[in-house]
Write a structure and sequence with these properties.
This protein folds into four domains: 2-88, no CATH class; 101-276, Ribonuclease H-like superfamily/Ribonuclease H (Nucleotidyltransferase, domain 5); 290-357, no CATH class; 364-453, no CATH class. The protein has helices at residues 2-7, 12-15, 20-27, 32-35, 43-50, 57-67, 74-88, 147-161, 189-197, 214-228, 239-255, 265-276, 359-366, 369-379, 381-393, 397-414, 416-428, 434-443, 445-453, 467-473, and strands at 101-113, 122-131, 137-142, 167-169, 177-180, 185-187, 201-202, 289-295, 301-304, 307-310, 319-324, 328-333, 336-342, 350-351. The protein starts with a helix and ends with a helix. The strands form four sheets. Strands 3-2-1-4-7 form a five-stranded mixed beta sheet. The protein is built from 20 helices and 14 strands. The chain is elongated. By secondary structure, it is an alpha+beta fold.
């Protein structure tokens, strides 16, 4: 090396700026075996060819060697390609902000829960949630992986954390993701509404891409090694008992110091992550369910749980979706809510909103004697007396009902208040005939008489002759 430096024509100031490879070239000390290394192919082209069906490294080597006879041998070819491919697979280290993501999943292992009455046991599913920044972990045991239990786990997890992160990263189980299409992911509607209630959203992992949910995978592994392994020889007789033990062991795990950085999960969570979480909503989320493609009957009602609920009559024969909870039923048509009802209290009950009826049905119902009497009572005493006369006092009941129906039409035309005035005036002069009531509404004699009564008296002074003047003359 010293000889090479002394024999070099380059100044020291130029040499010290070179890297190792340039230094050896400049001084002529490069390993001759490296310089004489045989030619190798473009590994990127080899890799592209390997993606084609039925491609083999031997076949590709033979084709390449035919164009480059002095190139590397087959053994070097295969080793070189595998070395190149390994260098291309570099894992990206993800950096999570406080309060950004919560990774959720069910553990692969279950915990048996025995029936104290001697029946069959259940395999409790263990829900695992891990915050991205602090690694703070939450565990809960539930009976199934159904939507109801999945949503309940999230509700209890948010309550335990005391806040809500910006994103929830679930796996592709049916309780979270219904299906994946070319340009969108279809979430379970109940799960989507739950997250919307908590002002957060789902960011599902890619299918068969475990590195997208590495936090959840690692969290599940740690939970299984730290907690579930400790429960291997214990017997549980209720989910409440199991969750009590899980809470204790999870608290110990969150308080355990990290090995490669200061603090613990709990300390990082309380110091940095908890202040960054969104606040919990003031009202609890109420789980709902869906029924899809329910046909509307010819009577513009749908059947649900042996009871009947009305929808707008123009949807007769259409297909609608039902969104319901324990207390509320919503009818959706093409993504728009068209009706909402309180759930029926018993089977066979019919819930009908008057506005949903066709106009012809409304007219028929409005013309029934009971509805006419109820309407008249709501308008006023004059209207009630007039309608009652035609429904109850007339000897020709059919014509009386027709007159009462026509009077209601007149009230719609002139307004209930004006019709009440006309009835009061007609009854005061002992008039009940339909034509007479129509004439009063048309010509308003009741208002003219009132106007005359309210006319101011004529002024009296010395230039006006009164009756006494004519009496004095006689």
């Amino acid at each position: 090396m010293r000889e090479a430096l002394l024999n070099s024509s380059m100044a020291w100031t130029d040499l010290q700026l070179l890297d190792d490879d340039a230094w050896t070239i400049a001084l002529g000390t490069r390993n001759k075996s490296i310089a004489q290394r045989k030619e190798a192919p473009d590994w990127a082209l080899v890799h592209a060819e390997m993606q084609r069906p039925d491609a083999t490294l031997e076949r590709l080597w033979r084709e390449w060697r035919a164009t480059c006879p002095t190139g590397i041998a087959y053994t070097q070819f295969t080793a070189g390609y595998r070395s190149w491919a390994k260098r291309q697979h570099v894992v990206m280290r993800q950096v999570h902000r406080p309060g950004e993501k919560l990774f959720v999943d069910f553990a692969g292992r279950t915990v048996p829960v025995m029936n104290p009455q001697g029946g069959g046991s259940i395999n409790a599913q263990i829900f695992v949630a891990v915050l991205g920044y602090s690694n703070y972990t939450y565990l809960k045991a539930v009976a199934t992986q159904t939507t109801a239990d999945w949503v309940k786990c999230h509700q209890d997890c948010f309550a335990d954390l005391g806040g809500v992160p910006e994103w929830i990263v679930p796996d592709n189980l049916k309780a979270a993701v219904w299906r994946r299409e070319k340009d969108r992911t279809v979430l379970n509607p109940a799960y989507r509404e739950c997250l919307r209630h908590y002002d957060t959203a789902a960011l599902p992992t890619g299918v068969r891409k475990p590195k997208h949910k590495a936090k959840a995978e690692v969290g599940v592994q740690i939970a299984q090694r730290w907690i579930l392994f400790a429960l291997r020889d214990r017997q549980f007789f209720s989910l409440e008992e199991l969750n009590g033990v899980l809470k204790q062991l999870t608290a110990q795990m969150n308080e355990h110091p990290f090995k490669k950085m200061p603090g613990s999960r709990k300390e990082r969570f309380q110091d940095k992550e908890l202040p960054a979480l969104k606040p919990l909503p003031t009202t609890p989320f109420e789980l709902f369910d869906w029924r899809y493609g329910v046909r509307v009957g010819d009577d513009h009602h749908i059947e649900h749980q042996r009871s009947f609920y009305s929808v707008p009559s123009e949807l007769r024969g259409e297909r609608v979706d039902l969104r319901y909870t324990a207390t509320i039923l919503e009818v959706m048509h093409k993504g728009r809510r068209v009706a909402m009802h309180q759930m029926a209290e018993g089977r066979g009950e019919i819930k009908t909103i008057p506005e949903h009826r066709p106009v012809a049905h409304v007219r028929v119902l409005d013309g029934e004697p009971r509805n006419l009497a109820r309407w008249a009572q709501s308008v006023g005493r004059g209207t009630e007396a007039m309608i009652r006369h035609h429904l109850e006092s007339r000897s020709d009941a059919v014509n009386g009902l027709r007159a009462a129906r026509r009077m209601r039409e007149l009230a719609h035309l002139h307004g209930d208040a004006r019709f009440e005035e006309a009835c009061v005036y007609a009854l005061s002069i002992n008039i009940t005939a339909l034509r007479s009531v129509e004439s009063i509404l048309r010509h308003s004699p009741d208002r003219r008489s009132v106007a005359m009564e309210r006319e101011e008296p004529k002024p009296s002074h010395e230039n006006i002759r009164g009756p006494h003047y004519f009496g004095e003359r006689t």
